């Protein structure tokens, strides 16, 4: 462990995030239920480019996850911030977030169905190289992309977990886990205690995984979210933004994506 200090869919044009970055709200359905995605890409780039799925925190599909899709578009990727809960299911309170999260986190086949629907959606976009798709996730989303990698249900170039839970009820199996993994973790995150980190590293080594775990000293849960402090204070939760960890973890992700996409 290294320690570091210091996208059936109707398109609705939602405007552009900035200069050449275009964004679209995408309404799609899974088993008759509505879901809302957010697609971002740079229209100054011609042709196909790698795609990145972005999985939200336990709060649901918020502006925060859309902002991360925009940032990926600025890097030259086509990004789809997907929806794991369903249209309108965005939590304002931890109790609601927990309820929404448990529906999918305790039902892996359902979680995979919702993730895979977004994967197919992104693959079909004409800005995307369908053979080069990765996924990143935050908090609940980080756990989600790790579990997708463990099950190897879709062909992903790589997955990145930002302050996601590392425990699982379905550990990776040797020979099955072939997706490269990058975990960006807060070393002081009480939601991901040292024993969970140790268990994850043991799991990855036993599975022969291509993985790397970076742990940020002093960083707690949600360290990439500028709104974390307010949420932490409001609900008395160990959430806090860490600018150093946020910036470095984003850089670590960039290097990782360049590697797995062969750029």
From TrEMBL:
Pfam families: DLH. The keyword Iron-sulfur does not apply. InterPro entries: AB_hydrolase_fold, Dienelactn_hydro, FrsA_esterase. Keywords: Hydrolase, Signal. Residues 1-19 form the signal peptide. One of its GO terms (molecular function) is hydrolase activity. Residues 37-260 form the Dienelactone hydrolase domain. SUPFAM superfamilies: alpha/beta-Hydrolases. Coiled coil: none annotated. This is Dienelactone hydrolase family protein.
